[in-house]
Amino acid sequence: MALDKPQYKYLDKIDSPDDLKKLSIDELYILCDEIRDMLIRIVSKNGGHLSPNLGTVELTVALHYVYDFPKDSVVWDVGHQAYTHKILTGRRDKMKTIRKKGGISGFPKRSESKFDAFNVGHSSTSISAAYGIARAKALKGDNSRTVAVIGDGALTGGLAYEGLNNAGRSPRNFTIVLNDNKMSISKNVGSMAKYLTHIRIRPGYIKTKKVVEKILLHTPVIGNPIRKLMLRSKSSLRTSVYRNTIFEDLGFVYYGPVDGHDLRKLIHAFNASKNVNQGVLIHVMTTKGKGYSYAENDPKSYHGVGSFDIDTGEPLSSRKGYSARFGEILCSMADKDEKLCAITAAMKSGTGLGGFSRKFKERFFDVGIAEEHAVTFAAGMASQGLIPVFAVYSSFLQRSYDQLIHDAAAQKLHIVLGIDRAGIVGDDGETHQGVFDVAMLNPIPGATVYSPCYFDELKADLDRAVYHDDGIAAVRYPRGGEPFRPEGFKPGALYTTFGSGKSAVLVTYGRLFAYAAQACELLKEKGIDITVLKLERIRPIPPDAVETAASFKKVYFFEEGMESGGVGEAFFVALRDQGFVGSFELSGIKDKFVVQASVEQSLADLGLDCTGMVNKLTWN
Predict the structure, then answer these.
(1) What whole-number distance in Å separates Cα of residue 384 and Cα of residue 514?
(2) pLDDT tens string 410-464
(3) Which of 288, 348, 479, 539 is catalytic?
């Protein structure tokens, strides 16, 4: 499969869903093949979400074939399923820019297209958002339809059930499409996954209902009354014949399971839903990674990928990252301590816990896409003397804030957070940047937070968090591998100084230390001698570190996180309390979201890279 731009017979002519509607079903199948070819080419070059998008090609084509978007509205759950949606809605030629600086987003975005009804980046939001849209339309007298596409494991998230419960027995024009691919990122877990499997093995469900109704309707005198009685009844008779699903018990008309790669069946189901006078749930079965053998055989590895070789499926970069190292360290600790447990929220592979899950099956818990539950679950374990370690992406930890405060901190329960993807993450953009966790954790009484720069520091900090701290103890680390390490650098205990300057000190933490060390060397070449103070523990800030910084005339603080509520603000308050009378300058992320770009581009734009530090200290 060459990387040069191919000529597509049908795809090159699709500039909007109206063009799609002109094709025959047979032509639509060819179009689906062309879309898959484009997806594989684009993602192999730019990186992105491959498996989930390959699995929803026919589903997306059928939706746009039947519904009238954007007059009708579609909300995508786990927006990484929406690449085909972008291709079909006027963004085909912009796909080569996806996830790049200045390009289109890897997720639905209202500011990007009128076809994107709601911004999405995190899971389990579609039903709530779509139901809100549907109710607002009804209040305005708008009879257009609203569709929520949920799946890729999002039904393991609690918010989905809150939405289902509220939307049950909703008026017409509201449809939920459940994309059941047996996966979230890692394999689906829990009772709902088992329940969907139970439904999947009953392919005659809808057929049985129709046959029974047809027989009753043609039974003289008593047939129709019995049918109506059964439709109204909550008795065991109704259950034994119709075998209701949980979705019908919640008030939805249920269709399915439907083959998610059979366009005719999909189109039939979507058309049928338009003629029902209440909410509809269509259960669609798809294959994650469909059409690319490497992704079909290993969908979790190809869920979110960097650039790769199409012919071999091999990644073009294989540098070991913090996630993998974290998993190795945790395994080593668990070998020696039977009280140590690991928890993940459907991110076993992403957080480096694959090895732990195999080696310590009884002490590994994948709770599904349920970060709130994960924290409270961990607190429950801690109350019984175990040591739970919850590995979670920084941006997903945001969902569990109440649980951190109410269920863990307020009870002084010792839980450990492995905060992955802390800081700038790059191409996934605003919804995935790990820049809020420090400001989230700073106000929580008793919380301890570490921010290592190197693997040996990660090991030392994890040991401190597990065995030397009480309450919430967090270790936050960035995406990717180790950065530049200055020659002779040796990590200290809770803070370290580097350089020999007497008048100015540059204070930072985490990955930014690597840039600060380089800036120190460049400034020395310009005749500017500074000291770098590297914080290892960022909450509480070590008093000795503050005292050291207070001895300088100028303090420059650089932070890969939000300025408001961040470490820099806390450091300044501590300096003031020490009687510091010199100058203090804080460089971090001001009141804005960080848009998609590479990590290096983002840090440069924010003035947080080596060049930004040199410029700041040169002109002051």
Answers:
(1) 40
(2) 999 999 999 999 999 988 889 999 999 999 999 999 999 999 999 999 999 999 9
(3) 288
